[in-house]
TrEMBL record:
Residues 1-20 form the signal peptide. It holds the Pfam family Rotamase. This is Parvulin-like PPIase. Its EC number is 5.2.1.8. PROSITE patterns: PPIC_PPIASE_2. It comes from Pseudoroseomonas ludipueritiae. Gene3D superfamilies: 1.10.8.1040, 3.10.50.40. One of its GO terms (molecular function) is isomerase activity. Belongs to the PpiC/parvulin rotamase family. It catalyses: [protein]-peptidylproline (omega=180) = [protein]-peptidylproline (omega=0). The lineage of its organism: Bacteria, Pseudomonadati, Pseudomonadota, Alphaproteobacteria, Acetobacterales.
Length: 311
């Protein structure tokens, strides 16, 4: 059990006054790894001892590092005493449990084993992921995947949104009349976003809109008007004003996407590589060995090499 499991409930209430005065923390881009306790040194003073179990400054810092960002933002003068007090409680409970030999119970041993395995999995993944999340690694990924490549296509469109198909057909006929002012008709007839701006939606990417609307808008050329298009919001008549290819986003704007892609890719690659190299034996429900699975058939099964060419 991590110390924060016991620390968190009381800190949530006790730290509220300090949080109200503190500076809000910056949003985390990736959950931080728990800080490893430092070895006891002169710079790592002893802060408490409970039944012979020491609590040093590094232990307190490690416990604080596991707390949610909104709690870590509290002043250290407020947070540290609360954490130390809760760690004393934790150590006392652990000592009492050991005195009763609860660690020898099969159920407890099984739970401890599962917790150890989970921590080892996380430690391995952190070791593999960390080099992929450095600024240098992320900039290299940006140069490979984003920089210098054309951005997404965007469409600038207006629309008129009405409740039913009959009204949409009337609107379509009206905006197709020679000299019709689409924006003016949108201001008087539309019930959707941008009505006051003449139905203007500005430039948007395909993924910004619901599929039905996006498919229609991106299939049109500038100046064209659509037939009535149904979406979950109602019936639209769309006019495309312009199309363009957006510039590639900057490194700073892409950072969150890059970090998430590197994280996901590294986790998947690590799992696949280690799983492939592991010796796996499967058994049936009754514990008997399962027959080895045959590899999937190949188009080359039974094929023979081509004859050697004569010179």
């Amino acid at each position: 059990m991590r110390s924060s499991a016991l620390i968190l409930p009381l800190l949530l209430a006790a730290a509220q006054p300090a949080l109200a005065q503190g500076t809000p923390p910056a949003p985390a881009t990736q959950p931080p790894a728990a800080a490893a306790p430092a070895q006891p040194t002169a710079e790592d003073p002893l802060l408490a001892r409970v039944d012979g179990q020491e609590i040093r400054r590094s232990d307190v810092q490690a416990a604080i590092a596991e707390l949610p960002p909104e709690l870590r933002s509290a002043p250290e003068s407020v947070l540290s005493p609360l954490v130390i007090d809760q760690m004393i409680t934790q150590k006392a409970l652990v000592a009492a449990a050991r005195a009763q030999k609860l660690q020898d119970q099969p159920e407890v041993q099984a739970r401890l084993k599962r917790a150890e395995e989970q921590e080892l999995q996380q430690a391995l993944l952190r070791q593999e992921i960390s080099p992929k999340l450095t600024d240098e690694a992320l900039r290299a990924r940006y140069a490979r995947d984003i920089a210098g490549k054309p951005g997404e296509e965007e469409v600038h469109a207006r629309h008129i949104l009405v409740a039913n198909e009959a009204d949409a057909k009337k609107v379509e006929a009206e905006v197709r009349k020679p000299g019709a002012d689409f924006a003016a008709i949108a201001r008087s007839r539309s019930t959707g976003p941008g009505t006051e701006q003449g139905g203007d939606l500005g430039f948007f990417k395909k993924g910004d809109m619901v599929p039905e609307f996006a498919e229609a808008a991106f299939a049109m050329k500038p100046g064209e008007i659509s037939q009535p298009v149904r979406s979950p919001f109602g019936w639209h008549v769309i006019k495309v004003e312009a199309r363009r290819t957006a510039e590639a986003p900057s490194y700073e704007d892409s950072l969150e996407t890059l970090r998430q892609a590197a994280f996901d890719e590294t986790v998947q690659d690590t799992v696949n590589r280690i799983r492939a190299s592991a010796k796996v034996e499967r058994f049936n429900e009754d514990g008997t060995p399962r027959a080895a699975e045959k590899p999937a058939p190949s188009l080359l099964d039974g094929a023979t090499p081509p004859p050697a060419q004569r010179r």
